[in-house]
Specification:
This protein has helices spanning 19-28, 32-52, 59-77, 87-111, 116-123, 125-133, 139-154, 165-191, 196-217, 224-249, 254-261, 264-276, 282-304. By secondary structure, it is mostly helical. The protein is globular and about 50 Å long. One of its GO terms (cellular component) is plasma membrane.
Length: 305
């Protein structure tokens, strides 16, 4: 979702600086690790603002606003080419978009039932599973056990008003979709040039989510203030972080990038406290730390391999 990947998309003359070059220059002045951290907090801020909308709109309607805003911006900046696509290209692109749609729908349902930090920590088991599945080392069993311990600590075995089994179930499905998203993203990267694969997937995702979002949101979706917030959520959750992450990946090893991304559940918990006043119990913080540590361990093991 990068503006700097497009050559003068608005048709400006040669005398004016292109928005892409300005964004690239600004990003080059920030260390790549800083770009990753900014992207992480941007995603979680977007999720925090989206959760505040749940008081007015159901989660599926908020998902529609987010994805529609992201698809609109992506479609303007990165127009996917449909001519010349093979049946395999169409299958990968549509599968990518469908996975993106389901992942967001179930994650927002989890977000409506769980504190942000807990929802993101459980969802993070998806990419952790992808990393461990690609390994043949016994040490990775330790990271699986550590992540499992984190989930056990998060489960509402006693009376808990902030955690529900339904929320945990939705977050786990979101994690499975995230794992599929990673695999399909790699497949799309081999079939579509640049970021056009993601642009294609977001448009497909917006089309698939629209019937559910419009039905549940109804006339409330036409309120200007909600549309504005939805646009902001789309920018914070999709366009801005992906642009920052793509720029960071060009300047740092993927393993280091993965290690930094492992901090996302902790960032989500912090944003939940600051923005939504979601104060977690000590046991829940320990659980999040276990999942973060498992992700860090599996990523470092992958780096050593």
């Amino acid at each position: 979702m990068t503006a700097y990947a497009i050559d003068d998309p608005l048709g400006r003359g040669p005398g004016l600086p292109r928005p892409g070059s300005l964004l690239r220059s600004a990003a080059d002045s920030i260390p790549p690790s800083g770009l990753v951290l900014l992207g992480i907090f941007s995603v979680q801020l977007g999720a925090g603002f989206a959760k505040e909308l749940f008081a007015t709109l159901p989660p599926s309607a908020v998902v529609f606003l987010r994805i529609a805003a992201g698809a609109l911006i992506m479609g303007l900046l990165v127009r996917p080419r449909l001519k010349g696509l093979s049946w395999g290209d169409w299958a990968v692109g549509i599968g990518f978009g469908a996975t993106l749609a389901v992942m967001n729908l179930v994650f927002y349902e989890a977000l409506a039932r769980l504190p942000m930090g807990i929802a993101v920590a459980i969802e993070f088991l998806g990419p952790l599973g992808v990393a461990v599945a690609a390994s043949r080392r016994r040490l990775d069993l330790l990271w699986v056990g550590l992540a499992a311990a984190g989930v056990v600590l998060l489960a509402p075995w006693g009376d808990s008003s902030s955690v529900s089994w339904a929320g945990i179930g939705f977050a786990m499905v979101a994690g499975v979709c995230w794992a599929g998203y990673i695999l399909l993203s790699a497949a799309a990267g081999q079939r579509f040039p640049g970021t056009t694969g993601l642009s294609f997937a977001m448009i497909v995702s917006a089309v698939l989510v629209a019937p559910v979002g419009v039905t549940t949101g109804g006339a409330d979706l036409l309120q200007p203030e909600l549309l504005l917030i939805g646009l902001g959520v789309g920018l914070l959750s999709s366009v801005i972080p992906y642009s920052l992450e793509l720029q960071a990946l060009r300047r740092m090893p993927k393993q280091v990038f993965g290690i930094l991304m492992s901090l996302e559940p902790a960032a989500a918990a912090l944003i939940g406290v600051l923005l939504l006043s979601e104060f977690l119990q000590v046991q829940q913080w320990v659980a999040i730390i276990c999942i973060v540590a498992a992700s860090l361990g599996s990523t470092r093991a992958s780096r050593s391999r």
